[in-house]
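Lecture notes, continued. The same structure-token format from the folding unit now serves as the input rather than the output. Read the line below as a description of shape only.
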């Protein structure tokens, strides 16, 4: 589990991982880009991201987006859409 803060206009890189992820939105608003679509979300919502599906979280609001996230397994393999490995902040 980890807390993440994205400033207004910031985004995670598009990526996928080899297990499910659950993200709880603590504050702020954003967009989930997944499966060719865009899903808006706000505080007190939970996002479930399935394994092996490319996705990106974007702060579309005007305040910091704070989330609490957890992977369903560890260690987790995270890759960019082209398959390039992506190091999580605590693994570098």
């Amino acid at each position: 589990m980890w807390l993440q803060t994205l400033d207004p206009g910031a985004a995670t890189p598009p990526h996928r991982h080899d297990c499910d992820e659950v993200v709880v939105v603590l504050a702020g608003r954003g967009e989930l880009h997944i499966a060719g679509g865009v899903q808006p979300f706000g505080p007190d919502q939970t996002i479930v991201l399935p394994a092996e599906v490319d996705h990106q979280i974007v702060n579309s609001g005007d305040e910091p987006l704070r989330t609490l996230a957890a992977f369903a397994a560890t260690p987790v393999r995270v890759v960019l859409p082209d398959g390039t490995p992506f190091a999580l902040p605590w693994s570098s």
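Point for the exam: The longest strand covers residues 21-27.
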